[in-house]
Design goal:
Layout: H1 2-20, E1 27-31, E2 34-43, E3 54-60, E4 71-74, H2 105-117, H3 127-135, H4 137-152, H5 159-170, H6 173-180, H7 187-196, H8 201-210
Length: about 210
């Protein structure tokens, strides 16, 4: 009970400080009346595929806060090597063993915002995205901008990407292979597109197995 009281008082103090800071670049608010279940909002950093997009995160405060970190995940879908494209789980050291009691919800969200600008593909949460990031940066940037536009109200609409996706939905699997491989579309972009439209892993594997070696 004592630790829960410490956590609750700390959260109330931090939220009050955020409300009085007019220059605060992030938002944190309580989910209904539960002060231990919060929502955070960050804006994609400039000069990144996420620039100007608005991302919402779920923040669950444990009774042991601030001595142990909150549990945080993205609610807004995002294409990033260190964030699961399926679940929103984040791979970041301060959310694990590098957390310190002196840290705050504000510094935590600012660190996550910095992660958007500086991905760490060698320590990924999403291996598919990390491989694309390392092997085909252009395809990664297109996919990340497209997801930011569709899911997070990002300003950068990817017309070419939208056109290709519409073609996928209108064509059969064999036609996808014929039309997309000559365009040098990376195979991992197939995965991101299929995931976006909810194609099952079995459907994805059938496509991949039917692609000849190149």
């Amino acid at each position: 009970m004592a630790s829960s009281s410490i956590a609750l008082n700390r959260v109330k103090k931090e939220l009050l400080e955020l409300q009085t800071d007019v220059n605060n670049p992030i938002e944190i608010y309580a989910d209904s009346d539960n002060m231990m279940k919060l929502r955070g909002v960050i804006i994609g950093p400039p000069d990144t595929p996420y620039a100007g997009a608005k991302f919402t995160l779920e923040i669950i405060i444990p009774d042991t806060y601030p001595f142990f970190p909150p549990k945080v995940k993205f609610l807004t879908k995002i294409w990033h090597p260190n964030i699961s494209s399926a679940t929103g789980v984040i791979c970041l050291d301060i959310l694990k063993d590098q957390w310190a009691a002196a840290m705050s919800l504000r510094t935590m969200l600012l660190s996550i915002q910095s992660l958007l600008a500086c991905p760490e593909p060698d320590d990924p949460q999403d291996a598919v995205v990390a491989r694309q990031f390392k092997s085909n940066r252009n395809a990664f940037n297109i996919t990340a901008k497209h997801w930011a536009y569709v899911y997070a109200n990002g300003p950068s609409r990817q017309i070419d990407c939208e056109t290709k996706i519409k073609e996928i939905m209108l064509m059969g699997f064999s036609e996808v292979i014929v039309h997309f491989l000559p365009l040098s579309y990376h195979l991992f972009t197939f995965h991101s597109t299929f995931f976006f439209y909810g194609w099952s892993l079995t459907q994805q594997k059938n496509v991949m197995l039917s692609i000849p070696s190149i």
